[in-house]
Design goal:
The protein is an alpha/beta fold. It is 55% helix and 13% strand. It has a single domain, classed as P-loop containing nucleotide triphosphate hydrolases (Rossmann fold, 3-Layer(aba) Sandwich), CATH 3.40.50. It binds cytidine-5'-monophosphate and magnesium ion (MG). The site of magnesium ion has 6 residues, from helix 1.
Length: 202
């Protein structure tokens, strides 16, 4: 029988990285990958890759959900994450930053049941004004179908209604590190490094 969760906490260390859209999750994860031995898996990036993959049965569905700022059914996202993690574990990797996930309670519960239990959640806390500015700036070059004002408003709403409860759930378990994000990316990264090294050997 398959082991549940698929990976034990001895096999893998999983950090969830959450925060509103445009808060800088990807940027800060890239810093941690550059300086330490983390594997960065962005749920949004995996979904976009699956959407673009020729022959994907989920392409159209993913594209609609992303444009509408809605959360893609958890089975799809969890399968993509589990596959990506399995590939990395086979290569001997064990430290994961799971970025933009879990964005909904059912994702949190199912992932921890089936794939791996998280060490903690890194939560980037930011005002909507700052996130909006960053997203519109990114939208000038990102080519993303959801970096436009209509989609952004929907993504903010989804974040508040659907993703904040996940952060509150982990806060209740004392498993959240909150990092304020209004400052420059360099200053934010200093806090990230300090906080993470306090919690685990980075
Ligand atoms: O994290 P990112 O901003 O790249 O996510 C883009 C979109 O991908 C989200 O607005 C949502 O539609 C989808 N997504 C999801 N479930 C996740 C992460 C992203 O449905 N866990
Ligand atoms: Mg991202």
């Amino acid at each position: 029988m398959e082991q549940h969760p698929a990976f034990t906490r001895d096999q893998v260390k999983v950090i969830f990285v959450l925060g509103g859209p445009g808060v800088g999750k990807g940027t800060q994860c890239a810093n941690l990958v550059r300086d330490f031995n983390y594997v960065h898996l962005s749920a949004g990036d995996l979904l976009r890759a699956e959407q673009a993959r020729e022959g994907s049965e989920f392409g159209e569905l993913i594209s609609t959900y992303i444009r509408e700022g809605k959360i893609v059914p958890q089975e799809i996202t969890i399968a993509l994450l589990k596959n990506a993690m399995t590939d990395e574990v086979k290569k001997g990797r064990s430290k994961f930053l799971i970025d933009g996930f879990p964005r909904k309670m059912d994702q949190a519960v199912k992932f921890e049941e089936d794939v791996a239990v998280s060490e903690f959640t890194l939560y980037f806390d930011c005002t909507e004004d700052v996130m909006l500015m960053r997203l519109l700036k990114r939208g000038e070059t990102s080519g993303r179908a959801d970096d436009n004002i209509e989609s952004i408003k929907k993504r903010f709403k989804t974040f508040v209604e659907t993703s904040m409860p996940v952060i509150e759930y982990y806060q209740g378990k004392n498993k959240v590190i909150s990092v304020p994000c209004e400052k420059s990316k360099e200053e934010v990264y200093e806090i990230v490094k300090e906080q993470i090294s306090d919690r685990m050997t980075i």
